[in-house]
Amino acid sequence: MVLITLVSSDEQNFPVERELLKQSGTIETLIVNMNLDDEDTDAAAMPIPLPNVKGDVLEKVIQWMEHHKGDPVKEGDNEDNNAEIVVPQWDDDFFKPAMYGSKHLELTVAASYLDIKNLLTLSCKAISNTFKGKTGPQIREEWGVPNEFTPEEEEAIRKENEWSE
Amino acid sequence: DVKLWETVLTLFKIVAASARPQWLVVGIYQTTFDSFLNAQSICQFGNGYIREKDKLDEEMLCNLPGDLHNSLISYLGILDRFKLRLASKTMENAVANSDFYVKLDDSCISFDVRVRFVRDSERKLVRRIMLSANFDNDLKLFSALENFANLIVLRKRLFKRAFAMRISIDLKNVHNETVNVVESLMEGCVFKNVDYAIHELRPNAQLRTFFSRHSNADLYLFIHGTFVDCDLLRSFTRPIQIHWRSSALPNQNLGWTIDDEVLIELVRRGHSFHLIPVVVMLEETILTLLKIVAASVRPQCLDVDILRTVYDAFLKAQSLNRTENGYMPDKERTKGEAREWDDTLKC
């Protein structure tokens, strides 16, 4: 089993199975471009630094990839019917402990940076599910977003919203 | 009544480690609970609790990159987008810059404009141009004439680009300037097909500008009633489909016709015509039209009226005879291969 070492921004090392990394477009491109696949070269032993991902987040990403090992990897832009995407139970349980916390958002940013399309899709869908059916102030409270609107601005938006049926 | 915060922690650990679901309802002194939260670095967050270290950076949701905001919003229907706009200015801006995938069954954005006479506050009849824009099952925007500006502003605040397979525009007895309003609402709409229906509207500069701007789309032009500008038809350089509604075929008072020469010119450009108000006068025209359509690289349909005498002359010139089901050459007729010829001619 070929292992490739990922190094997080806080310099933690994570030896990861080569097969798992095919889920990440960013890492896969690096491996191919730098010949890290070639066991006969020195490059194979070279660790891959990921300066934009913290160790605890990278650990979660690897945990997610391990569970989804063998899943078909999405290619190209997301043109699915977004309304039909359902977050599977395992993923829902995976995201839930960090929901409404910065960890979930960091995980989403990491999925985007590492170009792990399935993780990004499910993570975004899980976040957007928390917006559904909620009012603006409820979303503010749940996600700890400060209220930037003056009462007049808020009223203006409410009036605009009345244009829809 | 639990008095020690350590007891709370122990109970939590036992329940968390339990192999089967376990419920525990006990009373805890407020001071005990506060001490427990404090000792575990847990703070209140919304309706629940969260570890201090996991507490959301207040700016983080708003500071996500634009493409992630777009992804988050893409999963929301239009009504949830409306509500999200009220969460923060960043979210309001993110919604305005988001993409919108039309989720109607036929993936069609439709605009319907018509004139209505309504009574004002003094009970006088006044003319109003009513516009309804249908972007989604949940989003139907309505406006009377003086509110067009607001409608356009709102449309710009809901999405930057809309993706639909088709855009349907139906103008009923309206002033020409309405074309501009529809075009403003369409701004940013990404589409492959446009259905444009005209009712008793005299073609004008705005309409021509609209067609030339959207010449890359697969245009399907429905014409209801009289259509007095042959020059507009000749102005299309890309193939379009033109359909006169059968209920509104032009009558004898139309005052203009498309002659054979213009018809050939238009068909040569690749246009398809359905129920076009033209009567082919020359047998040579039929042959020319058939040759053009047969040589066309894209499917092309032509539905025209032909004088019976002209048609019979055409058949004769091509050595074709009528049969019960179709036509075949004289010499073939005797061989009894009518079925094969029927199929050929039907194609």
Summarize it:
The complex is a heterodimer of chains A (165) and B (347). With 165 residues, chain A is mostly helical. Helix content of chain A is 45%, strand content 7%.
Features:
heterodimer; A: 165 residues; Potassium Channel Kv1.1, Chain A; 3 strands; B: 347 residues; alpha/beta; 4 domains; 3-stranded parallel sheet; elongated; disordered C terminus
- Within the CATH hierarchy, at the fold level, what is the topology of chain A? Potassium Channel Kv1.1, Chain A
User: In percent terms, what proportion of residues of chain B is strand?
Assistant: 15-25%
**What distance separates the N and C termini of chain A?**
59 Å
- Beta-strand portion of chain A reads 5-15%
Oligomer: heterodimer
Helix count from the secondary structure assignment of chain B: 14
- What's the overall geometry of chain B? elongated
What is the level-2 CATH architecture name of chain A? 2-Layer Sandwich
Mean pLDDT of chain B: 76
With strands numbered from the N-terminus, the spatial order across the biggest sheet of chain B is 6-5-4-8-10-11-12-13
Low confidence ranges of chain A: none
Count, helices of chain A: 7
